[in-house]
Amino acid sequence: MGTGFRAVDAIEESLAVATDVTKKRLNCPLCRANWPDDDESLVSGLMAQLRRSSAKRHAAKALKLRDVLLSVIDRCENGEDAQRACLTKSMQVLERNLHTGSTFFGSHRGKGEALVPLLRFLYCRDIHSFSMASSSCNDICYNSRKLRVPFLRLATDKVRGVAPRVSAADLISLSIYSFSFAKTGSINHLDTRALALWLTDCYSLKELSFSGVQWEKVDPGGVQLGACVAGKNLRVLDLSHTLLTDLTLQCLVDSIKSTSSVAKSLEVLNLELNCITEVGLQELLSVARNVREWGLKHNKLGDGGCLALKLGGARPQGSWDLRNNNISSKGCGYLLPVFEEMTVARLGCNPLGDEGVSQLAYGLGQHLRILDLRQAQIGDAGAEQLGLQLRNASSLVELLLSGNTIEGRGALALASGWAWIADLKHVDLNHNALGSSGVERIVSELPYWHQTNFRLSLRGVECGDAGVIKIKAALQANPRHDRQWIIELQQNPILCVASLSEIRSLLTPRDSTDLSMEEPESTSSTNVSQSRTPSKCGVIGLIRSRSKLAIRRRSKSPGVGHPLGVNHPILGMGKSGSCPQLF
């Protein structure tokens, strides 16, 4: 009869009309025992179980059939024969529609408005090649026999040769650069005059850059520079490394004043590596009120420049690069009202001292995202004041304090302060005199840090094995596997290689620990084991693969001065009798 659903229905119908005598001769189809006494509900339950058993058998067969069909479909669609057929069909289609650049654009007709945006993605030489594809492309690429180049970058020795061939009306961005300060790479009087005449008709120009061209030497007073800027709605103006003085800057300001739209549209102004003082800055601030990114690094602003910033009325909500301007604590006092609204404040390489940093600390605001105080002569006193006020900088992303004289007391205050900043990504304490005790104080605040993608730079801080052990213990007690932290410990006198490996494993995400890290093995001076490439998380910069190969080749000769030898794969090369340099 079989075991299908029809068979089960037939059995149920027969049992419904069977007599008791007949039932006594039957066995249960499930357990093969004698038929139980008359309970009609028992018959329906037995039949339901038989149907479920039959359904399971049919389901298993259906799954097998599905697998067979899937394998057939895969072979038909992705098999070697199917791929060959698809390739043949594709080649036949290509033969009917094959185009080169010349044939495609040669077949193009019309004014070509749809092709004009292509020019924005091509270099000047590529636009010239594009123009030769067809007569229509020639019409698109040329305007009155001049090449339409929206973005142009020229060396100083190419200005007079290329500029007359380019359509000034279509120019959006122009960058003139010099390879060096050699005489052959400098701009000359004829170049400045040619540029001024050429840029007269560049009404659509938005970005202008004269970087490293020594403009002041050939155009004292900036008459030609003012002519280049006049009448333009510039958004970016880059005059870095051009030796500008206050006199030239005054002429530039007069040109900006003559065109009110320039003062409104200018957003980025880069004047790095010039000779500007507070006099020139004061004149510039009177017209550039909407600039949101200032590059004033390596000038001669001094404390008077900070006073000019305070009184100038410029928009403080932006990026200010004031590095290497000989600003002292007095200047910090002048700068405080503007500093409160800055988003990026770069004040490194200035003799600010503890007094100046303490004043700036009271101006930390919620807009600040990057604070650069590298090489600012900051000690523990200034670091303590800064750490106490860090909680006010709720949007801070980068805190850069390398190259100062911060020790343990100041480091503790800073570590306690940045625990309040949830979005902090990078703290740079490189090359401070922290020592192992200072690192221990920093690590004592680690349980309160809850940032993600956080990088702590402790290079060259004289941290020894004691500091590394404290870091390991803190990470064991407060796991940070899933926060993607990086702790940099290069250039420190660390001998405990096992602790470094454990720190790396403690900072590696748990789901990739087995794939990206292996346990350190015992090493000797004659047999050095090589570990796999470390994960991006953890203690970085252990050894690159090429360095590992070179060390392995030299590891046969044992070193002296260290129990593991100077050719250790983690410690790297060191001098005899001295601690080898880590990383």
Overview of the molecule:
With 583 residues, the protein is of the alpha/beta class. It has a domain at 5-88. Helices cover 42% and strands 9% of the residues. A 14-stranded parallel β-sheet has the order 3-4-5-6-7-8-9-10-11-12-13-14-15-16. Helix 15 links the parallel strand 8 and strand 9. Helix 6 packs antiparallel against helix 7 and helix 18 runs parallel beside helix 19 (408-418). The longest helix is centred in the first third of the chain and has 39 residues, at 40-78. The radius of gyration is 38 Å and the shape is flat. Mean pLDDT is 78; it is low at 181-185 and 512-583.
Could you give the count of β-strands? 16
Estimated structural class: alpha/beta
- Average pLDDT level: 78
> What is the strand arrangement across the widest sheet?
3-4-5-6-7-8-9-10-11-12-13-14-15-16
Gross geometry: flat
* Main beta-sheet strand count, sense and barrel state: 14 strands, parallel
Uncertain residue segments: 181-185, 512-583
Number of helices: 24
Q: Roughly how much helix do the residues carry, as a percent range?
A: 40-55%
Task: Describe the structure concisely for a colleague.
The chain is of the alpha/beta class and 583 residues long. The chain has helices at 5-17, 20-24, 40-78, 80-97, 101-106, 124-131, 135-141, 159-162, 189-198, 215-218, 223-229, 246-258, 260-265, 278-285, 302-312, 329-339, 353-361, 380-389, 408-418, 435-443, 465-477, 497-507, 513-516, 545-554, and strands at 142-143, 146-147, 151-155, 173-177, 207-211, 236-238, 268-270, 293-295, 319-321, 344-346, 370-372, 398-400, 426-428, 455-457, 486-488, 538-539.
